[in-house]
Amino acid sequence: MRPGVSILVALAAASVAADTPRSAYVVIVHPANRASRIDRQFLAEAFLRRATRWPDDTPIRPVDLGPDARARIRFSDEVLSRSVASVRSYWQQRIFSGQGLPPPELPDDESVVAYVLSHPGAIGYVGPGAALNGTKTVEVN
Amino acid sequence: MTRQRGITTSTRLLLAGLAAAVLAQRPASAAELSLVGQLPSLDVHGFISQGFLLTSANDYLAESSRGSFEFSEVGLNFTLPATDRLTLGVQIFSRKLGPLGDYRATFDWYYLDYHWKDWLGVRAGRVKLPFGLYNDVSDIDAARTAVLLPPSIYPAQNRDFLLAQTGVEAYGYTRLGRAGALDYRVYAGTIFLDLKPQPGSPFAVVDLKVPYVVGGRVQWLPIDGLRLGGSLQFLRLDTDLLASSTSGRVALRIPATLWVASAEYTVHDLVLAAEYSRWLVKNESDNPSLFPQSSTTSERAYVLATYRLNPWLQAGTYYSRLVPDVDRRTFPADIQHDFAFTLRFDINRYWLIKAEGHYMRGTAGLSSSLNGNRPLRALTPDWALFALKTTAYF
User: Fold this and answer.
1) Is the ipTM beyond the 0.85 threshold?
2) Which of A99, A106, A141 to mutate to test the interface with B (most CBs of B within 10 A)?
3) CB distance from A78 to chain B under 8 Å?
4) Structural domains of chain A, count
5) B3 in any annotated domain
6) Does any domain span residue B382?
7) Would B41 be classed as within a structural domain?
8) Strand ranges inside chain B, DSSP E
9) Digitized pLDDT (tens) for each residue of chain B, 394 residues in all
10) At A117, which CATH number?
11) For an interface test with B, which of A74, A75, A89 has the most B Cβ atoms less than 10 Å from its Cβ?
12) Looking at the 3D structure of chain B, how many domains does it have?
């Protein structure tokens, strides 16, 4: 291959790679959880606490990152179809009308991983580069 | 007889101190009080609001024509998820809104909630009434853009009547496959009301009770962010009145049927909502010569839009329309148009300030007793309201 063509091919490949959407978060569950895929709608219901049990009746324990985390912002946008601020407003309504409490908010990926490992029904999300330490990743349909 | 539970002054001071302490110590999140051993943790949340009302003419909610700071709210709640299925909760609330409220702390809600399945849970206690999109959250300033929710369907002065019932509620959420999901609540109970003097009224209220309130709300969630629903409520108010002039006594039964059709669409930072409602209220008197029988249907509606422009600024607007009697639509006393525009500034995650302007046409939303007992037709038909409110919450 001529050098000019090689450079063009490399540039095109780099361009394709740059355009390929890379998820800003990885959804993780406790290693004992049997799920390997999860429906996006179910995931949204779990984080809004409308769905509270896994199919085997284990309580779902969602856990959030802090409101400024990039993974939280993308997760909220893509899974819940709401901004983080809008989700906070939803939880204000639930809290002060006595209808429920939001998932705990943890400060970083390591804390989320530790929480998921220590709670059998837990589900969380972390940034793509986070050390998963034995938690199980699930694919979102 | 006062039937709503009051709390002593010392308890109020204690609660205020507790609220201040929690706010001071944990400004960054809800306080979670860990108990010893394996006991579940107690979640604590609260809010404190102070508002200001100013009208160009007429007194609205308070003595607003001179400017009024009688617009305060404090709430503190405790939630204990005792097990995976059982939750206990209580909220203490105090407010002052013109002649309503007296800074006395009351139990706003308290419940035991058994969440058996997603499609069926039961709450018992004093539970907020699900009526329309926002009735059960109408106190929660931090959860909305506007200072005042559209007053045609959420009149601030009716809070004691319409906010909560003491009894039981069944609720659930069920998925409908591709058709989305259904969210539903049904309830039955009673409402405990305070007897309050009515200055200027030709009748004194001797007894007042609500033998029943029953109803429900169903919301269909066909796609992300869309809620389409209907609420229906039946209640009856029984009261004994004493005529000030003749000392004659009247036993009055007031059955009421309220319904509202609702639609809300939330997508990212935009919220669009509309509701239409009718309230049918009858007066069944045992002494029609002193208090005539009547039947009145009121019509209430609004459209609303809010948008979050950036993390610290939201804008909102609504048009609200109230016709207290659909058979009488004479301007200005029988109709209230309300055009509102709000800016909400979130100073940080726990503190906000709102500024709101209203242009009002009509006087049907006003109170005669708050305006020197002048008839509504004698009040200024075109007027404006400016509201300012700040809320801290955690």
Assistant:
1) no
2) A99
3) no
4) 1
5) no
6) yes
7) yes
8) 31-33, 42-55, 71-81, 86-97, 106-117, 120-128, 164-175, 181-191, 203-221, 226-243, 249-267, 270-285, 294-310, 313-323, 336-348, 351-362, 382-393
9) 333 344 444 444 434 443 444 444 443 345 555 544 556 689 999 999 999 999 999 999 999 999 999 999 999 999 999 998 999 999 999 999 998 888 889 898 999 999 999 999 999 999 999 999 999 888 889 989 999 999 999 998 887 778 899 999 999 999 999 999 999 999 999 998 877 766 667 788 888 899 999 999 999 999 989 999 999 999 999 999 888 777 788 999 999 999 999 999 998 899 999 999 999 999 999 989 888 999 999 999 999 999 999 989 999 999 999 999 999 988 899 999 999 999 999 999 899 999 999 999 999 999 998 999 899 999 999 999 999 999 999 9
10) 3.40.190.10
11) A89
12) 1
Q: Are B392 and B350 in contact (CB under 8 A)?
A: yes
Residue type, position B110, single letter: Y
* A90: nearest CA partner in chain B: B143
Please give the Cα distance from B146 to B306 (Å, whole number).
Answer: 9
CB-CB under 8 Å, B143 with A89: yes
